[in-house]
Amino acid sequence: MSSKEQPKRLGRGLAALLGDSAAPASVSAPGVQSLGVEQLEPGPFQPRYSMNEVALEELAASIAERGILQPLLVRPHPEKSGAYQIIAGERRWRAAQKAQLHEVPVLVRELSDIDAMAAGLVENLQRADLNPIEEALGYRRLLEEFKLTQERLAAAIGKSRAHIAQSLRMLSLPANVLQFVRDGALSVGHARALIGTRSPELVAKRILDGNLTVRQTEEIVNRLAKGLPGGTPPVRRKADGPAETTLSETESVGRALSEKLGLTVKLTFNGNGGAMTLNYKTLDQLDELLALLNA
Fold first, then answer.
1. Catalytically active residues, by annotation
2. Which DSSP category does 230 fall into?
3. Residue 237 β-bridge partners
4. Tens of pLDDT along 95-118?
5. Nearest to 162 by CA among 11, 294, 13, 287
6. Helix runs in the chain, H state only
7. Which of 9, 71, 228, 243 could form a disulfide with 105 if both were Cys (CB 3.0 to 4.6 A apart)?
8. How confident is the model over 209-240, as pLDDT tens digits?
């Protein structure tokens, strides 16, 4: 399959990727069969790096009581006769073993490596089974492997383009900061506030040490952008009126906004009011900005 053909197969989620037969199905749907748990093994394209053991035990208890309600998506193992690789449903397979089931319902599909990877990513993204960093890495892999635009990817997985762009921007953070987000020590809001800062690791440590909120983190980042860590913005007071923002502060605020939005921002100030100009280079940037404003 050529790379030119791949984007056409991604349209609206897993069904659009692999056809209607790959859409979520009940265990009684046509084509569903039972395979022994020992015949299955995790596929090489699993986007999830870890599984929550407590959630896995809860799923096992549910399966023991109600059974598996949705079949696993698998493909024949490319190297082992009679064996199958799990494309979507590894958690159900692991939980089924904890529930002491010997067989699980599956849909068998002949999939290439790239189709198998995409199906696994889309299924996990739609089920919200991934942490924010795994989600962002999943987006990046789909964009790179399928040569998609962010708009086409957004349509494929049912997310906004702004959400995808913001997720991808998190991957610019240092590895140890990403690990904090992966572990849940830092929230997505914290991570977004750190994007573009000169010392994200130091600020992340300050967040963790002080148990800071996202709003407090944003205030710290803004002060750092103005060259005033821990300080307050400089002002020049008029003798007969309210405080007047200095020109240097206006420029600093413009730079801070530019870093936060990923756009060129220019602020002008005339003593009482002023104007803010946002410059975008592509329609994708404009759409992302409009999505943020609408939100």
1. 90
2. T
3. 243
4. 999 999 999 999 998 888 777 777
5. 287
6. 13-18, 53-66, 90-98, 113-126, 132-146, 150-157, 161-170, 175-183, 188-194, 200-210, 214-225, 247-261, 283-294
7. 71
8. 999 999 999 988 888 877 754 533 334 444 45
